[in-house]
Amino acid sequence: MDARRKERVVFGLLSLSMLAVVVPVLLVLYFLAVRGLPGVTWEFLTALPRENMRAGGIMPAIMGTLLLVTGTVVFALPLGVLSAVYLTEYSRPGALNRLIRLAIVNLAGVPSVVYGLFGLGLFVLFLRFGASLLAGSLTLALLILPVVITASEEALRSVPVSFRQASLGLGATRWQTTWRVVLPNALPGIMTGVILGVARAAGETAPILFTAAAFFLPRLPHSVFDPVMALPYHLYIISTQVPDAPPRIQWGTAVVLLMLVLGMNLIASLIRTRHRRARHW
């Protein structure tokens, strides 16, 4: 077999691999759109659930998910970025550095249900936050923290060393260089990683099952210590625990959750593309 024929065979196998990934995804999206979009109305998005979730809308679940995502960003973003700054700009190669990086890699592979049990033991029981928005946000922040740290590290490393050298040569301190030169240039990459991590957190069920989610709560939370409804848990409940639930509510909830996650991923892609086009180094 000559080189050109081998090349064609390899390209053919790669094309088949791409189709094997893309086609099932498109089929799932089509199936959800056909079943769920007719049920996604303005009333469905803005009304409170009624009749034990057999009627009404999913507004508390949408708002609960958005509140959990907001709390997750508030806790995970500063801690993750500061950790990445330390590892990239200040830490020295050694046993401690290797240990921290090994811990980050291992935490990224921990199943989400383990994070949920950890959040239950620490935030719900030990710190006595109860099943609440605060406990759920802290647990989800721990879940996405490895993603935020890794993405922030990559973004910080992508800033040329010459930028740091020029700033230090002009008399700036290391912290001034990091704060005024490195972080602004790495910010789009950091935000991309944060949004991707938050998109994962928005679709998780196990962590909030133990720490935040309410079975049926036809109102919005009044404080961070109140439980909340959330789209992933709500979808699980109406699909498995609510007899005779209308299919339009089940499929409509699935479509709204999918649109939320895909929207976050789209925002991350747009930020990354805009940053690449605007970058001149």
How would you explain this protein's 3D organization?
- There is one protein chain.
- The protein is mainly α.
- It has one domain (56-278): MetI-like fold (Orthogonal Bundle).
- Helix content is 75%, strand content 1%.
- The chain has eleven helices and two strands; from the N terminus they run ααββααααααααα.
- It has helices spanning 3-36, 42-46, 59-90, 95-108, 112-126, 133-157, 161-169, 174-202, 206-211, 231-240, 247-278; strands spanning 49-50, 55-56.
- It has a two-stranded antiparallel sheet.
- α1 crosses α11 (247-278).
- The longest helix has 34 residues, at 3-36.
- It is globular, with a radius of gyration of 23 Å.
- The two termini are 44 Å apart.
- The mean pLDDT is 88.
Task: Give me a quick take on this structure.
This protein has 281 residues and is mostly helical. It has helices spanning 3-36, 42-46, 59-90, 95-108, 112-126, 133-157, 161-169, 174-202, 206-211, 231-240, 247-278, and strands at 49-50, 55-56. It has a single domain (56-278), classed as Orthogonal Bundle (MetI-like fold).
Q: CATH topology, which one?
A: MetI-like fold
How many strands, which pairing sense, and closed or not: the largest β-sheet?
Answer: 2 strands, antiparallel
Report the top-level CATH class: Mainly Alpha
Return the structural class: mainly alpha
Which segments are poorly predicted (pLDDT under 50) over 5 or more consecutive residues? none
Counting structural domains, the number is: 1
Q: Using the CA coordinates, give the radius of gyration.
A: 23 Å
Strand content: under 5%
- Specify the overall morphology: globular
Helix and strand element order: HHEEHHHHHHHHH
Strand order of the largest sheet: 1-2
* Number of DSSP-assigned strands: 2
